[in-house]
Design brief:
Aspartate Aminotransferase, domain 2, 459 residues, Aspartate Aminotransferase, domain 1, 2 domains
Amino acid sequence: MELPFAESYKIKMVETIRRSTREEREEWIKQAKYNLFNLKSDYVFIDLLTDSGTGAMSDKQWAAMMLGDESYAGARSYHNMKDAIKTIMGFDYFLPTHQGRAAENVLFSVLVKEGDVVPGNSHFDTTKGHIEFRRAKAIDCTIDEAFDTTNLHPFKGNIDIKKLEEVYKSHPKEKIPFVVLTLTNNTAGGQPVSMENIKAVAALSKKYGVKVLFDSARFAENAYFIKTREKGYESLTIKQIVLEMYEYADFATMSSKKDAIVNMGGFIGFKDEAVFRQACTYNIMFEGFITYGGMSGRDMNALAQGLDEGTEFDYLETRIKQVAYLGNKLIEYGIPVQQPIGGHAVFVDAKKMLPLVPKEEFIAQTLGVELYLEAGIRGVEIGTLLADRDPVTRENRYPNLELLRLAIPRRTYTNNHMDVIAAALKNVWDRREQMKRGYRILWEAPIMRHFTVELEKIN
């Protein structure tokens, strides 16, 4: 008989987690003003808020931390990280930062000016926030197939080339600092971008004189999908595919808390030495000297090791198959999710899950609170709260999709936990017609409000 699939690791250390009662959770979420970010982690049974910095590092990563060089300038750990980035992505120049949004802050301080436009594939929250903070405009050019959760297009993260060319034709190139390709496309459901699309975006951008930036948080998962879904890449290793991907990037920002499997860290990759030198000044101002950039030596060592481990097929297969396990279980229960299942998370279609809740009352947030009340499971809203207000009109922006993201930490939970998540959502699904009202805002920040927003329930 064929052997069943098994994880490519064994467990060496465990952390206990506590089950709470519904009565406790009702009080805790009320105290948190119905914002899942405001909950204490001890109040959460299974935490799917994010896969960023929440995974389990390997024995080799922990060993590398013990060898960290904490010198302020020129540390061995910096050179280990530099060598790993050069080997895996091919960048000659890089700057370490403490995480991905810091990388965006440094790079965008050089490149993005007031009145600019930045096309891309569903810019994630911090990316759009950094663009709009500088009074520039993010333009979503994602393919239309991404907004139909039942469509099985294998690369729903792709940029629509016609939409992108329309942006290039209608704006002077001096007003387009770069196009951003988010790999994988998080907001659209952890969906990958094909190598064919990467090449097409790069070719069109070169024609119009526009640079290409990769938001690289989950670049290795993207490479996995290219290997398993795109013709001609079946026999290549993940590392070979990654090197080919980055041939088409001028810059890269990375939150290494995802595919480098560390708890903290990030970087910027450059092919242009002149931009690198400009960014060095901002890095020193915002992050730290250019050979540590807000990171400790031990974290740089762990990051270098994680880049190597994170671009191995066996690790990626284990990681992505666990996400697919949860997604397929939900599909089996009839729960509407973004299909095909993405790389780092399962995205539940909240509009279909809670059809009676008005869009003005934050459908995906309502679903997130219900799942927490049901079983102590914390997800995150990818919907109207995250979409924020239009910076000019200050009206709510209503995205095409209202999603509840269930982001799976790397090497952290077992499939038994996935079964609990699926059963809890099934219970919510079974009583969906009882849920007719959502939440209203009591207080919100002027930008990236979803992190700190305070809500009240509408009765």
